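As a warm-up, study this chain.
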Amino acid sequence: MGGSGQRGPSFSRRTGWCRDLGRFGLLSREARRGSKALIDLTESNPTRCGLLDTAPLVASLGDRRGTCYDPAPLGLPEARAAVARYYRQRGAEVSAERVVLTSSSSESYSWLFKLLCDPGDRVLVPQPSYPLLPYLADLESVELVSYRLIRDEGWRIDLEALRTVVDDHPEARALVAVHPANPTGSLVRPSEAQALDRLARQRGLALIVDEVFIDYPHGAGAPSHLPSFAGQSGEALRFVLSGLSKVALLPQIKLGWMVIDGPPAVATEALGRLEVIADSYLSVSTAAQLAAAPVLDRVGELQDDVRGRLLQNLSALDSAIAARGPGCPLRRLPSDGGWYSLIEVPRSRSDDDWVARLVEQAQVLTHPGYLFDIEQAGTMVVSLLLEPAVFESAIGRAVACWSEG
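Now compare it with the structure written out below.
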């Protein structure tokens, strides 16, 4: 008989996401389709922003040793040594034996959720934060719980509120810190780092510290902040994440890493378990690992170019606001680092209405703050990576539009 009673395959509840683009998604799609004159101030892909030529670094993928396959689950020794050297050049003492290579920071999160959590366990994450984290957590059947960064105090961690969140969620297994935070650009202060380590040790939590933007400080207070969690003293189990996507402006090479610190016995156990996870996937390409040393040893000029551009574009943003006079209703929120800037605009319109108005009147696309879990309306997020002449033109038009309402 026919298949009228047949059932199709069922899908995991983990992937039952709402795939509706939402108003911003529709606006941005139509804006990109509809106008060649549009300037995209959401652009954060370094390969599309006219930075220094990375062709010599990409050429490092042509190492002939890549024709052979001899898998090393934790990563090839020379690549792990290159990562350790990268940290030592920045004043952090890191052992290559405590470096684990992954294909990306997203995969690092995925492996750590597997390592630390059973289905239904909780992980504490900052708010605001990057919108990718909920998807990564869903894929591992892990639940996220937010803790606050205080907007009016330079996005510092609300430690008292964090302790309450930890007390309310004894099933939490890990605490995520982002240094500098994305998109707020706030760096973790040394006193906060000590408090996080103490809290994690007391409550049996692992620390996961995302440092993908650590090489791009630009705030006045940045030099007084913690340079990196890697190699710092502490008693909690700690995983520090980064990768070539931001460090070397090479997201296409797909090489990330984590550095493991903490009590020797616990760190060794974590490393052993991660080796089994890594061996189950063997996701990091040999070519990318062979390129790690020549790439990491040559990133200085590239990073200088990025830092210079960030400062130049921040200056252009500040000048555009200042040019509107003391009555300008806009304010750039201070930040210590990263590739983004947050701008307070009048709350006379919804964030999506502002996005639409900016596209229509100024031919400029920006991110609404709610995409990053910013609760207060009237916060726009712009990328600082664009070429300075392009950024200056776009931000001038945007500031005029926001100011005039």
